[in-house]
Amino acid sequence: MSLTFDAVAEASPGPKWLARWNRSWPAYEAWFRSRGGDSGPSAPECRAALLQHMPEIAPVYDQLVVLVGGGDRPARFLSTWCPPRYLGGCSLAALSAEGEARLVRNYDLSPDLNEGLLLRSEWTGRAVMGMVEFLWGLSDGINDAGLSVALAYGGRSETGRGFGITTILRYVLETCDTVSTAVAVLTRVPSHMAYNIVLADADGATASVELSPGGGLRQMPRAVATNHQSDGSTPDRAQFTRTFARHAHLRGLNTTPDALHRPFLLPPLFQDRHSEGFGTLFTADYAPRTRRLSLLWPDARWEQSLEDFAEGRRVVDYARQPLAAAPSACAETQGSRVDWSRAAAIDWQSLARDFAAGQGRDILTYLPR
Q1: What angle do the packed helices 43-53 and 72-79 form, to 10 degrees?
Q2: Which of 137, 178, 228, 293 has its CA 20 to 30 A from that of 129?
């Protein structure tokens, strides 16, 4: 019920990345073998696919393979070409006003299934910062042009010939500057599963697209996404993930870009079912214009930027984490009384902004603890 988050900076693949590989590879290897990865495409076929679809990052892939010893299974795993299927959660939204955009995501999964690694790199010569998955891919991130991107599982477990989405997002941030160029990449590079992608850039552009297994893309009218798609398919575990309720909530938000993160720390977007394998592990708030990232929890905040990145470590204990929206945390109960003398210390401006944005809570929750 806890997860250690590490912020690591390493311009080129080297000892820091290799240390992470040595720590994580045994678990990934067991997953890869148990899910039939050994019966997938050969290592030469995987590299050929990478050269065909994403040649700009093939040299990085080659470096990583050499760094881990050049084995056949690691080479196929790192390519993420036609990998075993994997599932997840997540809520995403991007919002722009007066040319300034923000992208916010909740990452919903079991604490046992996230790497907890925020990596700043310059693998292709440009600065990229994001949350790592599959040891070099990204679930969300931002680059030195301000382009920001995040993914959500599309709700279908079927697969097609394509790449793992985290490698595709790495490629987008290594090669694209704007939302429009990123959408062009997502149109031509096939994803092996259904995923929903939300993007924002430094010019204030936003977009949401749905990727189909094996290739194909559908652009959506609003830059929000959860864990189903608009093609009429029935999403996996819809009742468990509450994907439709979360999506409806996102569509109904009335807020500003700089306040977009606030509803993500409250139900129905915030999930507290960590012991069931579906809890919000972190909220990521990306500011494209300033190239900044805020990692958020109900009781903590970790600020990072591409220009002023600080290595460090944070441990999040989800069993002890306060629920930002639990009315009982502050509500008056039989045998207890509210100390209204503390009302003078309420942040009334924050309260007013919440109510103006349609996110107002019970007045008791605004009392300082």
Answers
A1: 30
A2: 228
pTM of the model: 0.87
Instruction: Please state, in angstroms and rounded to a whole number, the distance separating the CA atoms of residues 53 and 164.
Output: 13
The two tokens of residue 19 are 């240390």
**Helix and strand counts by DSSP (H, E) for the chain:** 9, 16
Helix (H, G, I), strand (E, B) or coil at 13: coil
Q: Tell me how far apart the alpha carbons of residues 196 and 172 are, in angstroms, rounded to a whole number.
A: 14
Residue 368: the pLDDT is: 58
- pLDDT tens figures, 143-163: 999 999 999 999 999 999 999
The candidate with the shortest Cα–Cα distance to 321, out of 338, 298, 301, is 298
Which residue's structure tokens are 């990452």? 107
Nearest 5°: phi and psi at 119? -115, 130
Question: What are the structure tokens assigned to 202, written together?
Answer: 């430094």
CA angle at 303 for the pair 14 and 258, rounded to the nearest 5°: 130
**Encoding tokens for residue 153?**
């599982």
Q: Please answer whether residues 92 and 225 qualify as being in contact, where contact means their C-beta atoms are separated by less than 8 angstroms.
A: yes
CA distance 218 to 187: 9
In whole angstroms, give the CA distance from residue 59 to residue 231. Answer: 37
Sign of CA dihedral 167, 169, 170, 172: positive
| Residues belonging to the chain | 369
Name residue, tokens 């990865």.
37
State the chain's maximal CA–CA distance in angstroms: 71
Tell me: pLDDT of 323 over 60: no
Q: CA quadruple 356, 362, 368, 369: dihedral positive or negative?
A: negative
Nearest to 144 by CA among 123, 161, 163: 123
Q: What is the 3-state secondary structure (H, E, C) of 241-273?
A: HCHHHHHHHHHCCCCCHHHCCHHHHCCCCCCEE
